[in-house]
Here is the input.
Amino acid sequence: MTSLRLAFMGTPDFSVPALQALIAAGHEIAAVYSQPPRPAGRGQKLTPSPVQAFAQSQGLEVRTPKSLRNAEAQAAFAALALDCAVVVAYGLILPKPILEAPRLGCVNIHASLLPRWRGAAPIQRAIQAGDAESGVTIMQMDEGLDTGPMLLRDSVPITPDTTGQSLHDALSALGGRMIVEALNGLAAGTLQAVAQPEAGVTYAAKLTKEEALLDWTRPAAELERQIRAFDPWPGSFFLHQGERLKVLKAELAEGKGAPGALLPGTLLDDALAVACGDGALRLLRVQRPGKAAMEAEALLRGYPLPKGTVLG
Here is the structure.
């Protein structure tokens, strides 16, 4: 294996295993780039990103520019004299001078099987859409949005139990293993980038809190996938008597709502089976504001939701 001089560019906890893998493989990390510290918690104290916190624990130089579009930032990056830059959920657009500065360019660990699910939220959108699999693509970056040629791809199944969190963790670990292999191939000249196919392109729009509200007029199967996809964030919820109740787990149930039957959102029994636009959904684990999550049976002992109740 050839030891390379690298910059690592990432921000959330998803990125940390890749940095750990590069250090363990013996690569030289010349600098770590991450988003600037952000206010967090009740006190809104400035808090470093997970990548910055880990990098500093390893004694690595950390840079947190607000932009890479200015000449000063680009010159500082070029002065690192890099073999390659590894980018994992960094959060800043890399302009052409940055992309072209390293000898081997910039490579990205993307959490989907490109060209499906380019964009901001590939993990959640894959589950939400009912995809049978997801995976990681190691991509040579260009100026487009996740459009660069592919170096490596590997897949993992999406099962009926897969959540946003579990898929996040699986792909984060997979990306860490794959990036070491990809860099070995690039350094040896044995790995050739392959253009993404033009067919099958989809875009994973950024998640919003507003779309987490459960729309009971939609099919129950879609809502069940949404609940898994949005766990832990933004978390699916419904409204009842002014309260916002988060749904952490659900399953398909017997019964149905509209058309020609009950209004969607109507409880079909005394055990939280909800009529949907097509089919029904049984809520299994729910969380009231300011309280611990609990199984449906425990919730109903102190928070009656009888048959016939219409949920918002």
